[in-house]
């Protein structure tokens, strides 16, 4: 009979020689069971481990900083080694291809949320958050900003150099309209860029934070392909069949447009497969597939940052009905009356789907459309798609934030 102390048990569990110890059959059945269970868990953990070379910046590199280049040919932003990684989007890795298809794609590139320190020309320092960026902190000196990714977040990027601005309207700057902060751009050859650097702990706690790209939803580079910024399309034929055929031909022509990118995200993989989940939870493959289908399984691994960033205060998706299928796609428009009602309402926000379900909310102003959308989500549910005529109040501002928050396409 073998007598084990707690210290001896911990040594066996965490010793570098645990593989040989685990294979020994102990007389104590409890110890043997614990060791076998630990071995099984260790195999699962090791299957998702990722090694990464930690990059250390010198004092001079921290002072000099790097360039955050404006790249309109990149369809996703990239973080270089001067970026301070705050969060890692778990369960998601990407395959990235450079501008030339003959180059070998780079696989298993992680998606991260990072921060930079940016010193304004007035002496103030701001913390710029670059969310949903590819992690090249171990290989790239400078960083890249996808300009349309920032514009999608409501940031005005005017990267036209004044020397070639024939209309004399370019401010050559990055403007945060909500905070009313503008940063001038500099030139490195034909590329506009911002001077950024690695932020210190004190700056992270005391400086003003600005969101350069959105961190509340997953960045989809195909957004501009699906929403081609065409406010309306009309045909001249009165015959509905001919009109429908003309519309299909036009849409097919738009989809066939070619795309040229300097840095193109061609795939997203996840290690969270039904087989992995079945092994991890000890459930059948059928249950694992149903679990992955019915859950978003989005997760962030927080490395550092303020306490306020550690807990996401967004309401859970289970609080609202999730409207799926073709009946989950809704269209919305604002109707205007010629006469103001006794309650002071002149507008009505209408929501309808293909099943002839209609829901309407009365408004005093057109700008109250986001409030109607919020009420619709609370009372009816979260649609999977929302089609509008791209009016300002139905495509920008609070309406856009609500759609991004609830993953409404």
Commentary on this structure:
There is one protein chain. Strands 2, 3, 4, 5, 12, 13 and 14 form a seven-stranded mixed β-sheet that branches. Strands 6-1-11-10 form a four-stranded mixed β-sheet. It has four domains: 6-46, no CATH class; 59-222, no CATH class; 225-255, no CATH class; 315-409, 2-Layer Sandwich (Nucleotidyltransferase, domain 5), CATH 3.30.420.10. Residues 9-53, 227-238, 254-261 and 305-313 have low confidence and may be disordered. 23% of the residues are buried. With 409 residues, the chain is an alpha/beta fold. Helix 9 (274-281) crosses helix 10. It starts with 5 loop residues before the first helix and ends with a helix. It is built from twelve helices and 20 strands.
Structure summary:
The protein is an alpha/beta fold and 409 residues long. It has twelve helices and 20 strands.
Keywords:
single chain; alpha/beta; seven-stranded mixed β-sheet; four-stranded mixed β-sheet; 20 strands; 28% strand; globular
